[in-house]
Amino acid sequence: MNQNIIPIFLTSDDNYIPYLCVAIKSITDHCNPQLTYRVHVLNNGLTQSNMDKVKTFETDFLTIEFDDVTAQIKPYKAAMDKALRDYYSDAIFYRIFIPKMFPQYHKAIYIDSDVVVLTDIANLFNVDLKDNYLASVLDEVAPSQPVLVDYVENAVGIPINQYFCSGVDLFNLDAMRAQQVEEKFIALLMTYNFETIAPDQDYLNVICKDHVLYLHPGWDKQANPTPYNDALYIVHYNMFMKPWLYFDVPYEKYFWQYAQETPFYQDLLKKRENYTEAQRQADLMGAQKMGETCAAILTKPHTFKQILAHTTIDEVLAKYRK
After folding, report:
1. What is the pLDDT of residues 193-230, one digit of tens each?
2. Domain 5-321 carries which CATH code?
3. Residue 235 belongs to what H/E stretch?
4. Residue 178 burial class via C-beta count within 10 angstroms: exposed 0-12, middle 13-18, buried 19 and up
5. Domain residue spans in the chain?
6. Looking at the chain, which terminus has fewer C-beta neighbours within 10 angstroms, N or C?
7. What is the pTM assigned to this prediction?
8. How crowded is residue 1: how many other Cβ atoms within 10 Å of its Cβ?
């Protein structure tokens, strides 16, 4: 393997191509042309037209590849679909398969496609992971409501001050392979398929517990109105805070700065203009429902915390293999 390659993984379907392109454009604008960056777009099938559009953002120092994960997820797709909630698609699980799909890499960056990058992504790649499985940023949303804190600590079983957001990660792929992170995820999913609020995030928090390096919050600054006056490296328009749907989203200027440099700019403006009040009310109801779902999950007997109080992930994996 060329040790100088910086691998960056994102996911997309055909509907998410405009936002993916904004994210990639923001990455390329901050790259060091003396380095080599390789963007991998994980997907389960994209049109040639959309792939061609994405490829236009390649540069002399950044190449883009499309990696179809259909074969990897096929045996587990029914269970994945059952685990999904509301607006999620099974694309949230693709990152789990990176370590085994790409044995040529020792570590890699994963970022959600609803981001803009405001610095050289190589600065994240060069973080010393030591023996940790991954590096990530503490979640901003979960501590904001008592019911979410209760859910994280008493359903997922993670102290709120250790619960990370999985939208931006630096993966120690060697450690994840050695510790069988993918296999443990599959064993837990197929054995229990826990009800969750953030499926990929909750599973990763449980499997990687006590093996996480916590990054500066500027590496995954979520678009919420909480005052923030520190360094800003990546803005994450997570959950409902999408500047292409809402006006006055925190940090929206960065999204539109890069959107203007893509062929989707006018379409994105129209999408926001045409987003109806009924759709916004539905989003609001979805946010309220999240709290209700948390409360309901807490009453269930099969939560991560309940199950793992009586067994270990390694024991679940051993039983699943039989």
Report:
1. 999 988 889 999 999 999 999 999 999 999 988 889 99
2. 3.90.550.10
3. strand 234-236
4. exposed
5. 5-321
6. C
7. 0.94
8. 10
Angle (CA) 292-242-202 rounded to 5° is 45
Residue type, 313: I
Question: Six-digit token pair at 276?
Answer: 């109806």
**Is 57:27 a contact under the CB 8 Å cutoff?**
no
Q: Retrieve residue 21's tokens.
A: 């392109």
Question: Rounded mean pLDDT of 172-191?
Answer: 94
Task: Give just the sign of the alpha carbon dihedral 162, 165, 166, 168.
Answer: negative
CA distances from 134 to 73, 81, 156, 301 (A): 22, 25, 18, 30
Which residue type sits at 82? K
Per-residue b/e over 255-265, b at no fewer than 16 CB within 10 Å? bbebbeebebe
Task: Name the token pair of 51.
Answer: 């792939």
The average pLDDT across 183-195 equals: 91
